[in-house]
Specification:
This protein is mostly helical and 206 residues long. It folds into two domains: 45 residues, Arc Repressor Mutant, subunit A (Orthogonal Bundle); 145 residues, Tetracycline Repressor, domain 2. 67% of the residues lie in helices and 0% in strands. α1 crosses α4, α6 crosses α7 and α6 runs parallel beside α9. The protein starts with a helix and ends in a 10-residue tail after the last helix.
């Protein structure tokens, strides 16, 4: 299944043939039919590789008493953890993002691709820390931009590696990414606070 995951994540479902899958896995086409039924069955199996649930992800950063920095550390940890786990986890994330861009119908039951609850929780967190009564269009934009910083590490992984080789290689490099993502996220939030003319929090972030 690893061979199928790699091909689907790299090429997409429509551009990957059953013969390519068999050759990559060094099996005959009949083996795919026997274990998965068809190409669509193999795609579903690869797509549903174990991954964290939204509730598990939100538990990292949506807790009472967390500072904004602590919340962002947990938020971006969810994007960085698959990169720490190696190739399979990274490819799973890449395949999920590809499904958003080139849908095959696996997520038809949930048009938000499972991200809706986390997006709403992020909006609530931002509103709370900025002292707003609730989300508005600009808070939506801010939340999307904050998530985009993490998403691009996966969607743009191959391009990023060409532009800046080794920038995400190894634990220390990913630790540096974690620090910078949090710093950049705090800067975006502070810029929005300034743009709105909102008062500074009673306790400034370190």
């Amino acid at each position: 299944m690893h061979a199928g995951l790699r091909l689907f994540a790299t090429q997409g479902y429509s551009k990957t043939s059953t013969r390519e899958l068999a050759e990559a896995a060094q099996v005959n086409v009949a083996a795919i039919s026997y274990y998965f039924g068809d190409k669509a069955g193999l795609y579903r199996a690869a797509f549903n590789e174990p991954s964290g649930s939204p509730d598990e992800e939100m538990a990292r950063w949506n807790q009472a008493g967390q500072t904004l920095r602590e919340a962002l550390q947990g938020f971006y940890a969810g994007f960085l953890e698959p990169l720490r786990q190696g190739d399979v986890a990274r490819l799973c994330m890449k395949l999920h993002f590809r499904e958003m861009l080139e849908p095959t119908g696996l997520w038809e039951a949930d048009p938000t691709f499972g991200i809706g609850p986390m997006h709403q929780a992020l909006l609530a967190l931002l509103a709370r820390h900025l002292g707003l009564p609730g989300p508005d269009d600009d808070l939506q934009r801010l939340a999307i931009c904050l998530a985009g910083l993490g998403v691009h590490l996966h969607v743009g992984h191959d391009i990023n590696e060409r532009l800046a080789p080794g920038l995400a290689d190894g634990p220390s490099a990913l630790d540096r990414w974690s620090e910078r993502l949090v710093d950049f996220g705090l800067a975006l939030i502070e810029a929005e606070r300034t743009r709105r003319g909102l008062p500074l929090p009673a306790h400034r972030e370190p």
